[in-house]
Amino acid sequence: MINTESVQHANLQQGDKKVNIEGAVPSTIRDTVMIDQEAQSHESTPDGDLQVSTTAQKDASQLPEKRKTIETDKLVDAKKVKLDTKSPKYKKLNLTDEKYDETSYYFENGLRKVYPYFFTFTTFTKGRWVGEKILDVFAREFRAHPAEEYQRSIETGKLTVNYEKVPSDYRLKHNDLLSNVVHRHEVPVSLQSIAIVHMDEDIVVVNKPASIPVHPCGRYRHNTVVFILAKSHNLKNLRTIHRLDRLTSGLLIFGRTSTKARELEQQIRNRQVQKEYVCRVEGRFPDGIIECNEPIQVVSYKIGVCRVSPNGKDCKTTFQRISEVGDSSIVLCKPLTGRMHQIRVHLQYLGYPIVNDPLYNHEVFGPLKGRGGDIGGKSDDQLINNLIKIHNAENWLGMEEGGILPIANPIKCEVTNSRENESLTEIEAQHTKLKSMVDSIKDVGIEEPIDPFDPIKTTFDPFCHECKVIYRDPNAKDLIMYLHAWKYKGVDWEYKTELPNWACKELIDYDTL
């Protein structure tokens, strides 16, 4: 399965659920491809919404200047063009109804799961690929699968150039459109419902559960907030105004109109929005208001990791202990800037990391786990390499902020014998036998599922590696982090959410804060 990257050229993707399973070749080709909606943080400059025609019937003069029409008889040898990533200032997730119908959900063990489905990843050739053989590029750039699998995809016509079959030694040209049909398996998330905090004709405010990404990224598509809202509440084409990490719960605002989205996004950029978070950290947090002004640097956008560094961007967070719970503290956090992972990194630096932060409360940052900026004398490259190695064993890295790792599966698994000749009954029996129970779901208030697994709805691809793997369900502890976006207050507006159980809301009078 190909993971797209957020780089200078747009990574485009489209879905096509009508697929010939024997050859895994699309029976229909969509007329448009869309920019993969990925971002590093709401401080990053969002990409604009763009649609590209791939039909020869349309006149090139009617198309956006950034992409030229691909003719069916002759390809235009155009210069490499960089997309303008500075306008507009919001993200519009323009998804059609057909995309929402690619697959459906089922629920078990406290998890929302997605039936595997066929999907077409598409991307334009990047400058560094030009002149290289297509097989060499995929084997190097998309290491989730071995070169032999890409070789087979090219030979069977699943991996094409400009929707035409090519040999494996084909050399890529500028503006070549690469398409690869994959059998997509998504990662389970919490089945906790997304509560609507406020909704009017301009905005939608929700309480995001932990474990659910905001929008499609990495191995998540239908198991994202925007898809769930579209499928469950018929709230489509929402504009993202800000973001939360996948494991962070809490207040999330979407624009329903471009005007309102620009207005609120501008307030955030101008730091006119007061944000309050609640978290639970290790140890007894100091008395009084603690201010952290340490600059934060992104160590790697690709895997989504930051640390305090003098070379980083200026940022400021204030913290105040509001209660103690055993050997941990409940802390009120007020980020005055909006850097990537700001609260988590500042708490790590202060020596009071979030108790269940799988990234910043880890010995990979050295014996002190990053306290005071001490990462054990490692260079940034060493830190990144160690993080990737640990990810292979513990499977928690690379899903935050749209970060993508080119290796490993995000959930530990057991490889079984080939299931190609198994009946649906046998598959269901194995599925039931090997599933693990999620015990601790009371922290997030999960209800019993209403749509259990239905073997009739599943699909199988004999060439799909993941179809031959039985996945263990993630543990409940892997689906939650004790960090919650509680309140947002802007110009003439204010919203807040209910607090999660781990915040001890029955013992703390939050109304006095």
TrEMBL record:
Keywords: Isomerase, mRNA processing, Phosphoprotein, RNA-binding. InterPro entries: PsdUridine_synth_cat_dom_sf, PsdUridine_synth_RluA-like_CS, PsdUridine_synth_RluC/D, PsdUridine_synth_RsuA/RluA, RluA_PseudoU_synthase. Gene3D superfamilies: Pseudouridine synthase. It holds the Pfam family PseudoU_synth_2. GO terms for biological process: enzyme-directed rRNA pseudouridine synthesis; mRNA processing. Residues 202-348 form the Pseudouridine synthase RsuA/RluA-like domain. The keyword Isomerase applies. Residues 1-23, 39-69 are annotated as: Disordered. GO terms for molecular function: pseudouridine synthase activity; RNA binding. Residues 1-14, 51-60 have a biased composition (Polar residues). The active site is at D245. The keyword Isomerase applies. Pseudouridine synthase that catalyzes pseudouridylation of mRNAs. Belongs to the pseudouridine synthase RluA family. This is Pseudouridylate synthase RPUSD2. The lineage of its organism: Eukaryota, Metazoa, Ecdysozoa, Arthropoda, Hexapoda.
